[in-house]
């Protein structure tokens, strides 16, 4: 690959010798630093840690993926995440931007890519709040008409993983669709799926959204800060699309081009079936067979979950 190469001294100078003041966060590889090259280009630098839970192979995998993919909703150089309060219009644009990025990965790029770790902290925003899908360390590429594979080493983040992947190690483009559905519900509600437990019925965010939908109270799910700026029709459509994406069976979930069409039309959507992982206990209490997922874990499941990523 014809990639630009930078000496360690150049990177060290750009980040002020990896100063803590320039540290943006920390992920599975290690710390990430903000830097400035001499020509004025702002960059983010990942530094592989000796204690990293992800190794050199994953690091190389990410470099290969990013170097071969070009899309406005995928990272080239990682942008600094901006933590601001976003109105509904911008949140809706972010949802649609993530969807367009996934369409490119699944269908339009030179490689068919399954991200496998799509989550809120892997969606970076540039200065104009345009979403960029990042972190391709555990992404998998496919050739020809392949759309599905299985693995004995399940990696990803609890709360975003599809049931067929978490339980059986089977991943496909529909695994990313499930993660997108979780992200959509999180963006609408302003709440994280993982760690959310409704005080009245103990459901997680997916279960709570499903309950509100069935009771005809989906608007109650919306982030209270969006009350004045939201378009009810767009909010309701986003919630219904999110629930369609997190359905139990992969066959029932739409593909990402269909999701784009759903957002762009005003026609009636199909009714979602019951989602997967209705409560956190659905996953915690599951029987993970060591014969299908042989690992060193006592549960037979290996999950990388680094909050700072």
Instruction: Report the CATH superfamily of the domain at 81-284.
Output: Transferase(Phosphotransferase) domain 1
Strand content: 5-15%
Oligomer: single chain
- Compressed to H and E, one letter per element, the order equals HEEEHHEEEEEHEHHHHH
Give structural notes:
Helix 5 (173-189) packs antiparallel against helix 7. 39% of the residues are buried. A three-stranded antiparallel sheet has the order 1-2-3, with helices on one face. It has a two-stranded antiparallel sheet with strand order 4-7. A two-stranded antiparallel ribbon has the order 5-6. The chain starts with 7 loop residues before the first helix and ends in a 25-residue tail after the last helix. The chain has a domain at 81-284: Transferase(Phosphotransferase) domain 1 (Transferase(Phosphotransferase), domain 1). The longest helix is centred in the N-terminal third of the chain and has 21 residues, at 88-108. It has nine helices and nine strands. Helix content is 33%, strand content 11%. By secondary structure, the protein is of the alpha+beta class.
What is this structure, in a nutshell?
The chain has 309 residues and is an alpha+beta fold.
Q: Topology, pairings included?
A:
Blueprint: H1 8-14, E1 23-26, E2 31-36, E3 42-46, H2 56-68, H3 88-108, E4 112-114, E5 123-125, E6 131-133, E7 140-142, E8 148-150, H4 163-168, E9 170-172, H5 173-189, H6 205-214, H7 232-245, H8 256-264, H9 281-284
């Amino acid at each position: 690959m014809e990639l630009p190469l930078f000496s360690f001294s150049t990177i060290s100078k750009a980040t002020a010798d990896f100063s803590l003041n320039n540290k943006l966060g920390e992920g599975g590889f290690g710390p990430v630093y903000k830097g400035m090259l001499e020509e004025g280009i702002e960059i983010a630098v990942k530094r592989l840690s000796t204690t990293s839970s992800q190794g050199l192979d994953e690091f190389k995998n990410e470099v290969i993926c990013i170097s071969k993919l070009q899309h406005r909703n995928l990272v080239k150089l990682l942008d600094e995440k901006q933590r601001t309060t976003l109105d509904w219009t911008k949140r809706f644009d972010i949802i649609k931007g993530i969807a367009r990025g996934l369409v490119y990965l699944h269908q339009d790029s030179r490689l068919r890519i399954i991200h496998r770790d799509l989550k809120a902290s892997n969606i970076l925003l540039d200065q104009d709040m345009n979403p960029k899908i990042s972190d391709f360390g555990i992404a998998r590429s496919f050739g020809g008409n392949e759309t599905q594979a299985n693995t004995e080493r399940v990696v990803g983040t609890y709360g975003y993983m599809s049931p067929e992947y978490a339980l059986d190690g089977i991943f496909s483009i529909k695994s990313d669709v499930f993660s997108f559905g979780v992200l959509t519900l999180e963006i609408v509600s302003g709440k994280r799926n993982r760690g959310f437990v409704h005080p009245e019925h103990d459901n997680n965010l997916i279960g709570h959204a499903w309950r509100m939908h069935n009771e005809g109270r989906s608007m109650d799910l919306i982030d209270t800060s969006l009350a004045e700026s939201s378009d009810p029709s767009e909010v309701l459509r986003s919630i219904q699309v999110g629930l369609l994406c997190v359905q139990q069976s992969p066959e029932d979930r739409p593909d990402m081009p269909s999701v784009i069409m759903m957002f762009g039309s005003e026609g009636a959507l199909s009714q979602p079936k019951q989602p997967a992982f209705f409560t956190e206990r659905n996953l915690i209490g599951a029987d993970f067979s060591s014969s299908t997922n042989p690992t060193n874990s006592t549960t037979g499941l290996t999950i990388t979950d680094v909050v700072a990523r």
